[in-house]
Write a structure and sequence with these properties.
Elements: E1 2-6, H1 10-21, E2 27-32, H2 35-44, E3 48-53, H3 59-66, E4 71-74, H4 79-93, E5 96-99, H5 104-111, H6 114-119, E6 123-125, H7 134-146, E7 149-160, H8 167-177, E8 181-185, E9 188-192, H9 197-200, E10 204-208, E11 212-218, H10 223-230, E12 236-244, H11 246-257, E13 266-268, E14 271-273, H12 275-293, E15 300-311, E16 314-325, H13 329-345, E17 353-355, H14 357-360, H15 363-376, E18 384-390, E19 393-397, H16 399-402
Parallel strand pairs: 1-2, 1-4, 2-3, 4-5, 5-6, 6-17, 7-12
Antiparallel strand pairs: 7-15, 8-9, 10-11, 11-12, 13-14, 15-16, 16-18, 18-19
Length: 407
């Protein structure tokens, strides 16, 4: 089989290494506009590779790279710019597709292509990273196996301390703070805005196991628009998160509050300055100082999925936390991306069309493969911290107690 991996940064590189070592693929196409980045990944892969310089804005170049592949994994970002373009090319090429899209607006555009994908006989698994991705899978497992009735799903996350951040990351963060954010509250889809009362009402303090307590706010991730469709009876789905340290994310918020986000140049002492470009440069200039002040010397993060409902007539909350120290978002996103791609190649992604993880994956297929891959990488297993809150109080339990198939 042949796989095409587009985007050879940390996420795509991590996924490519896992795919190359899986023994499932005879050949891997590695495509990136930076051919040298693809070449570095190719040199370390354990299968035959073909490096291509691909500009995802060039539709014909994309289709040419995809045409002989059995599955395409798209790791090119930002997804609000490239996600729909690459999916459209995959549908036109009639090639099955996986991506890690976490952008709400891009996801909505991709879901509009569902009929086209069905007609082309294409299965497109979108949002197969951590959030969205693993978060959706865990929520589905809880709803189907642990609770009699699912009332609420709260997806919570914090990360920070990565070795570097580029201008694109900051611009994406600013973009996310300025848009309408869908949330599923009281059984209805509503929109909130970060700095309005509607958004402030959702802000809360969250204790992330082994990481600490952080103030989280509304995030425009796509779980809030897909999970209500597939988790029967759920009344609340939220996505709340932040970036550490707090002074860093607050600086970005302040820039947005001050309105320094215009792309129109203004005159400053005879020089044309674009407010957004200045703001991004200033934020990045302060990052190292703020990390040092906070004592953050390595990347850290936690994705926490709280699923609340009824079991045996009693109120129960299951909390699943993926906590990491020393590893950035790239690894946490690249591993599930590889899992989705392998399952696609194995015929374990069910249905045709454009589908989120909870619509087309068996959670146990994902979790068993995750355990296998992580053990092969030297880990003891899935680094999941599980907590249960019920009438007995809050307690931590072993993963095998709630998912015995992983024992």
């Amino acid at each position: 089989m042949k796989v095409c991996v587009l985007g050879c940064g940390t996420v795509g590189g991590t996924a490519a290494m896992i795919l190359g070592a899986s023994g499932l693929f005879d050949e891997m196409i590695l495509g990136d506009v930076r051919e040298e980045a693809a070449g570095r990944i190719a040199a370390a892969c354990k299968c035959k590779t073909d490096v291509k310089c691909i500009d995802v804005n060039d539709r014909e170049s994309l289709k040419s790279a995809m045409k002989d592949a059995d599955v395409v994994l798209n790791c090119t970002g930002p997804f609000y710019e490239y996600g729909p373009k690459v999916l459209r090319a995959a549908i036109d090429a009639k090639v099955n597709y996986v991506d890690v899209c976490d952008d709400l607006d891009a996801t909505m555009e991709q879901l509009k292509m569902d009929d086209d994908a069905r007609k082309a006989g294409v299965t497109a698994l979108i949002g197969m990273g951590s959030s969205p991705g693993l978060a959706n899978v865990i929520a589905k497992y809880c709803a189907e196996n642990l609770l009699d009735r699912t009332d609420a799903i709260d997806i919570l996350h914090v990360h920070g301390g990565e070795a570097s951040e580029g201008a694109a990351v900051i611009k994406h963060r600013i973009h996310s703070m300025m848009m309408d954010i869908p949330m599923f509250l009281d059984g209805k889809m509503v929109t909130v805005r970060l700095f309005d009362e509607s958004g402030k009402a959702l802000e809360t303090e969250v204790e992330f196991p082994e990481i600490g307590t952080y103030h989280v706010h509304a995030y425009p991730h796509p779980e809030t628009i897909t999970l209500p469709k597939y988790i029967k009876g759920v009344k609340r789905v939220t996505n709340l998160g932040t970036v550490a340290p707090p002074k860093y994310i607050n600086l970005i918020k302040d820039v947005v509050r001050l309105g320094m986000t215009s792309k129109e140049p203004i005159d400053v002492q005879g020089q044309k300055v674009v407010p957004l470009e200045f703001a991004v440069a200033f934020i990045l200039s302060q990052r190292e100082k703020l990390l040092k002040e906070a004592g953050m010397t390595q990347a850290m993060g936690c994705l926490k999925i709280d699923v609340k409902g009824k079991k045996g007539g009693e109120d129960v909350t299951y909390s699943f936390s993926f906590t990491s120290k020393g590893a950035g978002m790239g690894e946490g996103t690249g591993i599930p991306a590889a899992i989705g791609t392998i399952l696609m190649a194995q015929g374990k992604v069910h249905g045709k069309g454009v589908l989120p993880p909870e619509a087309c994956l068996d959670p146990m297929d994902v979790l068993k493969l995750a355990q296998e891959i992580l053990k092969r990488m030297g880990a003891k297993g899935i680094p999941l911290i599980v907590e249960i809150t019920d009438k007995k109080g809050k307690r931590r339990v072993k993963l095998e107690e709630v998912i015995p198939e992983l024992a």
